[in-house]
Design goal:
Elements (H helix, E strand, L loop, with lengths): L9 H19 L1 H16 L4 E5 L4 H7 L9 E4 L2 H4 L10 H7 L5 H6 L9 E5 L6 H12 L3 E6 L1 H5 L11 H4 L2 E4 L7 E3 L8 E3 L1 H22 L10 H4 L1 H19 L5
Helix pairs in contact: 1-10, 2-10, 3-10
Length: 263
């Protein structure tokens, strides 16, 4: 068995990249995070919804916002299985089809036709490249409907990518506010001697970090406004009985809130 590589191996390379990206978020993105959180909190206090949309692996960031432990109603996750279900990879429901569909033009109006939105709503649109047609189209239609649009993207990755949307716009061009998740161009961060391409993407870590920064500041603002959110909470914090009661109350609250979309 060969000896273990020294501390500057691929593991250290990835962890160093994660730390650098998180430091960049802290240094550059907190004002925008607070701005997004203020707008989202106002929307939730008003009884409306912050829609969260992403295709591909951006689905992870969508579901990080809600529903999971430590999250709360007010956010409306929207994912399309045809563009986010990656388990099959090939064959029916394969990755080729998903990647094709996420660049179909005209999807935005079709999606939003399912919901009774209001100008008081917001959209958080998530795309690391900021260039796939469907997410741009969803953001454009949300703007047309009067919604405030926040983009969560990687500015570095978008800078070296070409828009797939017929307008030529990138997600950052459409949004009212941009949150940069600070993932590198190409996303993957680890280079290995003898391997042509890098491995180990950062956007899952950095995107979810930004999501939780926003979530934390929204929760603070709601609480200070006298409308503390019902949070999905682990039993270790409150005990099994209280956690179970809060679990049911959280989903009841979510059902009540999304009811405005189907009136």
């Amino acid at each position: 068995m060969s000896a273990e590589r020294p501390p500057d191996d691929v593991l250290a390379q990835y962890l160093k990249a994660v730390r650098a990206a998180l430091d960049a978020i802290e240094a550059t993105q907190l004002p925008a995070v607070r701005q997004a959180a203020a707008r989202f909190a106002d929307t939730i206090v008003a009884g409306r919804l912050v829609h969260v949309f992403g295709t591909g692996h951006s689905r992870m960031a969508v579901e990080e916002m809600f529903p999971r432990y430590g999250s709360f109603p007010g956010f409306h996750p929207i994912v399309e299985l045809s563009m986010t279900f990656h388990n099959a990879v090939v064959g029916a429901n394969g990755q080729r089809q998903a990647m094709f569909l996420e660049n179909v033009q005209g999807f935005g109006p079709v999606l939003w036709r399912n919901f009774a939105t209001a100008p008081e709503d917001c959209l958080l649109a998530i795309s690391t490249s900021g260039c796939n047609a469907v997410t741009i189209d969803v953001a454009l239609e949300a703007k047309r409907l009067g919604m405030y649009v926040v983009a969560l993207t990687s500015s570095a990755h978008a800078a070296v990518s070409s828009s797939k949307h017929e307008s030529g716009q990138k997600l950052s061009d459409v949004a009212d506010l941009v949150l940069d998740q600070c993932a590198p161009a190409g996303d993957s961060a680890v280079w290995i001697d003898g391997l042509e391409t890098p491995v180990a993407p950062l956007s899952s870590v950095t995107g979810c970090a930004v999501i939780n920064l926003v979530k934390a500041d929204v929760a603070r603002r709601l609480t200070e406004a006298g409308a503390p959110p019902k949070v999905l909470t682990a039993a270790c914090h409150l005990g099994a009985a209280r956690a179970g009661t809060l679990f049911e109350a959280t989903y009841d609250e979510y059902r009540r809130r999304v009811g405005v979309l189907y009136r």
